[in-house]
Amino acid sequence: MIRFPNTLFFLLMIGFISIFVLSCRKKDKVDMSPGLQLSFSTDTVFFDTVFPTVGSITKRLIVHNPNKNKVSVSNIWLAAGESSSFRLNINGNPVISASDVEIPGGDSIFIFIRVTVDPHNQNTPFIVIDSIGFVTNGIAQNVKLVAWGKDAIFYRKANLSGNIIWDSLKAHVIYESIRIDTNSSLTIMPGCKVYFHMDAYMAISYQSTLKIPGNLEHPVRFQGDRMDPFYKDLPGQWGGIYLEQGSKDHEINYLYIKNGSLGLAVDSMGAQPNPMLSLNNSIIQNMTSAGIYAYGTSITSVNCVIDDCGGACLDVNYGGIYDFRQLTIGNFWSSSVRNVPSVYLSNYSYDTTGKQVYNPLQKAYFGNIILYGANEEEIMLDSVPGSVFEYTFDHAILKTLLKTTNPVRYINCMVNEDPRFVDIQKLNYRIDSISPAINVGAPMGIPFDIRGIDRGSTPDLGAYEYVKDDQE
Questions:
Q1: Which of 148, 176, 197 is where one domain is finished?
Q2: Per-residue pLDDT reduced to its tens digit, 128-173
């Protein structure tokens, strides 16, 4: 009778020990269940330091196993392998890949990432990109690696206030987005180059202004940040420029925008005495959607070229006031099927409930222009009754099936006559020696073309005045 409690205690202790041992063994066992995933301290590791010399920076990534049991990460690797600018340190070992890395349940490991770039190497891209891949029980995951490359000024989700001036001493590179805050201004000086990473965009806020005083010798350039040959003429590499509702007094001269998704989006202006945008001597080229998207706004333009867009080169919605002179539109988009005309004009839109709302198209004047492209119809006039819809084509070459007999709407217009562009395959929209556009324009008070060539008393149509060297 005396020994029974001791025996019971002994049996209970054995039971507890057995449960503890079994539990520990179960926890030590690698869980091979499908669908297990890791979690990470971030989805993108940024190295956002501008390197004044050869850069060497280390950052940390925490890889966490949120599961109850141990997991084995069958493979961890740098996607670019030996050619990567990045290097990893996993469990104290400098590697570019590792296999069968075990992480206990509820525990983590640290991966240290190092990047080395030479910002002065001309072959280094502005933004250096790689990723770390992980495979756990057949499930693939990755973490992006991003580092600034060349010696430039970088912006990532930037919000700038005040009167900002960008000079041309260094390139400006935008990652994700940049916004000019309310009641601010951005002036981009002649010769400045602005590069946008994939899907990056610029927005100018309410009561703010964009000024680009480029000149013939030193134009300003907006383009994607990839400069290797494959990307030279690849559209859709970045987002676009958004002049938002209520922004004002934008003045752009000698700006070259290329290879984005949208060139300029110009939103409604409100009650302003001046045009919302003055756009002169500029080229918008190779956009996947519109070259200019205008919504109930006001634009004046001289000596501009808009070409090769997957949507309309000029997309005017919800009325407004527009004056385009010496404009060349050439749309031979070949990257996909283009189902819309090069110029779209409307005096209405739809509100958030789907209700049709009207706004007068008070003026859409096109003087001394070439409007030509690959489609049979390159003009769409989309008006609703009850609202003003005023448009005029004055001395023009037009590609259209519309009736152009109204002398108020169509003044000295040639219809469906090839303007004889020099080389549409190379996006060269100058005119050659046999172009019907030569010497048929009306004097518009614009003495020089986009290249500074004297137009004389009988200007050619479009942004380019013909000179003999154009064919060479």
A1: 148
A2: 999 999 999 999 999 999 998 888 899 999 999 999 999 999 999 9
Q: Which DSSP string corresponds to 215-284?
A: -SSS-EEEEES--SGGGTT-S-SS--EEE-TT---EEEESEEEESSS-SEEE----S-SS-SEEEES-EE
**Looking at 84, 118, 148, which one is the last position of a domain?**
148
* Residues 165, 111 share a domain: no
Asked if residue 160 and residue 142 are part of one domain, the reply reads no
Which are the contacts of 105, defined by CB distance < 8 A and separation ≥ 6?
A: 27, 31, 65, 67, 68, 69, 70, 71
pLDDT surpasses 60 at 1: no
- Of 325, 262, 271, nearest to 294 (Cα)? 262
How far CA 292 is from CA of 272, 329, 432, in Å, comes to 20, 11, 26
- What average pLDDT score do residues 306-335 get? 97
Whether residue 205 is found in the same domain as residue 135: no
Question: Using one digit for the tens of pLDDT, what is the confidence trace for 16-63?
Answer: 555 444 444 445 689 999 889 999 999 999 987 656 555 567 899 999
**In Å, how far are 240, 351, 408 from 146, measured between CA atoms?**
22, 40, 57
Where is average pLDDT lowest: 23-27, 82-86, 347-351, 369-373? 23-27
Least confident of 47-56, 250-259, 377-386, 438-447: 47-56
Structural domain total, the chain: 2
- Write the burial class of residue 361 (CB in 10 Å: 0-12 exposed, 13-18 middle, 19+ buried): buried
Buried b (16+ CB within 10 A) or exposed e, 79-114: eeeeebbbbbbbeeeeebebeebebeeeeebebebe
CA angle in degrees (0–180, nearest 5) for 67-73-78: 130
Cα gap 88→321, rounded to integer Å: 57
Report how far residue 376's alpha carbon sits from residue 188's, in angstroms, rounded to the nearest whole number: 39
- Cβ atoms of residues 324 and 297 within 8 Å: no
Distance CA 308, CA 294 (A): 18
Domain residue limits at 101? 39-148
pTM of the model: 0.85
